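Field log, afternoon session.

UNIT: design team B
ACTIVITY: writing a sequence onto a fixed backbone
BACKBONE:
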């Protein structure tokens, strides 16, 4: 029996995760990876998230990232490891996280007691994360936590993100949603990224997207305007609820009061980061 208010863990995740993912929109990431010879944005992204797994091949990255076109993955992996080692990629990633958070939040927030408190709470939440059937989480959990509070917070946010993400992939599989159907149905909820950004960053063609829409309509999950039907809405809600159940442990471990406090702290940092331009309009569809 949960001791938390309904969806408290999901709300906390939705506040903490963007403070990890803002790195992928940051010019600092490209700058740091350029220094180690990786200039293509897709190659940098794959190296950023996969480096904790070691010098893995395209199959492992396609499996663990799920919604990227395997053709795009194979274009860059494993060739990226010939340019820079996983350890070099991890170093570039951490340097980019440092400069990104300092730029977006400001030095006062970086040095604040609130940042130290957020780091402590987020790290404590990760104590209850489990590695079973969670490859991306497990790989990142083997990495040491940085000492600086803002980087410790970013590290903990990474662990919480990948812990939930691995669970989410299991929920998508159980719902019978393939990689592109997952993207299409998520976008149809109104919470996804802008379509041009999805196609460009995930390596799919518009024809692939339209074919996935056709498959979802055949299942009665999309209507003729590509909006979710009642059945589609229920399926997506079920995916999120299943993800919540599989990701409950870290938030149950914190307890209701500290989950609320971590959510409050993370939201404050998130609003500051967003106001500083952390998330480009062309990605969110609000441009």
């Amino acid at each position: 029996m949960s001791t938390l208010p309904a969806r408290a863990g999901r709300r906390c995740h939705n506040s903490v995760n963007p403070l990890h993912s803002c790195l992928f929109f940051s010019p600092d990431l490209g700058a740091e990876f350029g220094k180690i010879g990786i200039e293509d944005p897709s190659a940098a992204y794959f190296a950023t998230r996969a480096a904790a797994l070691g010098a893995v091949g395209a199959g492992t990255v396609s499996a663990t990232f799920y919604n990227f076109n395997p053709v795009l993955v194979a274009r860059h992996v494993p060739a990226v490891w010939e340019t820079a080692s996983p350890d070099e990629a991890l170093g570039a990633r951490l340097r980019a996280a440092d400069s990104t958070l300092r730029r977006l939040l400001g030095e006062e927030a970086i040095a604040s007691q609130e940042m130290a408190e957020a780091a402590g709470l987020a790290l404590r939440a990760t104590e209850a994360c489990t590695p079973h059937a969670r490859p991306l989480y497990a790989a990142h959990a083997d990495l040491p936590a940085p000492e600086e509070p803002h980087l410790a917070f970013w590290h903990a946010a990474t662990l919480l993100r990948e812990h939930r993400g691995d669970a989410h992939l299991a929920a998508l599989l159980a719902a019978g949603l393939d990689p592109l159907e997952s993207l299409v149905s998520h976008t149809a909820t109104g919470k996804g990224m802008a379509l041009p950004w999805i196609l460009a960053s995930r390596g799919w063609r518009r024809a692939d997207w339209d074919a996935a829409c056709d498959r979802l309509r055949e299942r009665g999950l999309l209507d003729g305007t590509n909006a979710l039907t009642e059945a589609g809405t229920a399926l997506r809600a079920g995916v999120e609820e299943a993800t919540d159940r599989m990701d409950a442990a870290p938030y149950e471990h914190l307890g209701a009061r500290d989950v609320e406090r971590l959510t409050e702290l993370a939201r404050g940092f998130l609003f500051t980061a967003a106001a500083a331009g952390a998330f480009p309009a062309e990605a969110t569809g609000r441009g």
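LOG NOTE: DSSP finds 18 helices and no strands in the chain.
NEXT ACTIVITY: expression trials, pending approval
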